[in-house]
Write a structure and sequence with these properties.
The chain is of the alpha+beta class. It is 26% helix and 40% strand. It has one domain: 2-Layer Sandwich (Alpha-D-Glucose-1,6-Bisphosphate, Chain A, domain 4), CATH 3.30.530. It has a 7-stranded antiparallel sheet with strand order 1-7-6-5-4-3-2. The radius of gyration is 15 Å and the shape is globular. The protein starts with a strand and ends with a helix.
Amino acid sequence: MSFVTQSVDVHVPLATAYNQWTQFESFPEFMDGVESVKQIDDTRSHWVTKVGGVRREFDAEITEQHPDKLIAWTSTGGDTMHAGVVTFERLGQRDTRVTVRLEWEPSGLTEKVGNAVGADERQVKSDATRFKDFIEIRGVPTGEWRGTINNVQPTTVNDAWPT
């Protein structure tokens, strides 16, 4: 398994950063390689990505979500296996640290080589920076979902970080 952890400090209130992260359909606006995300229901979404010329489709399910604290997910279908958690930490009245931790199993030569040369880590860092720019320029989220989800199914990342 491969892991990446990346943090970015954004100059918006905690609730603003968190609320924006709940709007998965806006992810193509700041995540390179994400072509589309369709929200199926409160916990499930369908993703279409194209990275390094490889197009993938998969479903993801939120396994745990606590407003202004964390969102954890795992893939549930398609040709990619991954899990992740994003946490939100108040640094001040208008400053928030957003930390993304991803875990995945690279498949195929392109993904294995990309992982070996650090392309995945650079991609996550770039996406985090684009999220920072996106939400700081907007100043307000495109929407929000503030429901709580408690361990629909455990994931390795969720089991390991945070507790």
